[in-house]
Amino acid sequence: MFGGDGASYDIGYGGLDHVLASGEDVNVFVIDTEVYSNTGGQSSKATPIGAIAQFAAGGKRISKKDLGLMQATYGYVYVAQIAMGADNAQCLKALREAEEYPGPSLVIAYAPCINHGLKAKGGMGKSQAEEAKAVACGYWHLWRYDPRLEEQGKNPFQLDSKEPKWDDFQAFLEGEVRYLSLKKVKPAEAQELFDAAKKAAQKRYNTYVRMSKMDYSE
């Protein structure tokens, strides 16, 4: 099954949750553009703090929903976050594991969108490079949750992202019009929201680090 983040995080989340909670051997692939791409770029629960979108012209004020971590709490759903342009090997490994897993699986892929307004020369032609930048600075994180590992006394949560270069975080934001334009419409609040976005990303990453260090041997 394939779906966008608008349905998967938001208006269709109840259906997605019902399917994954069924325990059936289904594979779901979510393309996360962080806005309602197909209907004009409206803000959704997948939109991060500080991003400008329709219905959030002054920048989103609340954190992005962590769909993957929510589904991992079931304990029997395989979950992975990927970004092909950042790590081809991790992407392929996650897809293979998800398909092999004898139960419900969810793979969430970061996907730059025309609504992001990539400022890099080449625009959407550089979407793979944009994915790599997103992971390198800590904007997006790569991880896998495989319930089979817990059965072996191993930690099912595996953090695949390296320690982010947090000093590059704001430069990444300012490389996309959806963030940079915030300085024009809300100059006094832009830096506050950029700092909040970075703090939210750091909090999420630190949560993943703690989970990756949990001991399942007993």
Written account of the structure:
The chain is globular, with a radius of gyration of 17 Å. The protein contains ten helices and six strands, in the order βααβαβαβαβαβαααα. The chain has a six-stranded mixed β-sheet with strand order 1-2-4-3-5-6. The protein is an alpha/beta fold and 218 residues long. Helix content is 41%, strand content 12%. The chain starts with a strand and ends in a 6-residue tail after the last helix.
Order of helices and strands: EHHEHEHEHEHEHHHH
Q: Treating each run of at least 4 consecutive H or I residues as one helix, how many helices?
A: 10
Strand order, biggest sheet? 1-2-4-3-5-6
**Helix fraction by DSSP (H/I, runs of at least 4):** 40-55%
Low-confidence stretches: 53-57
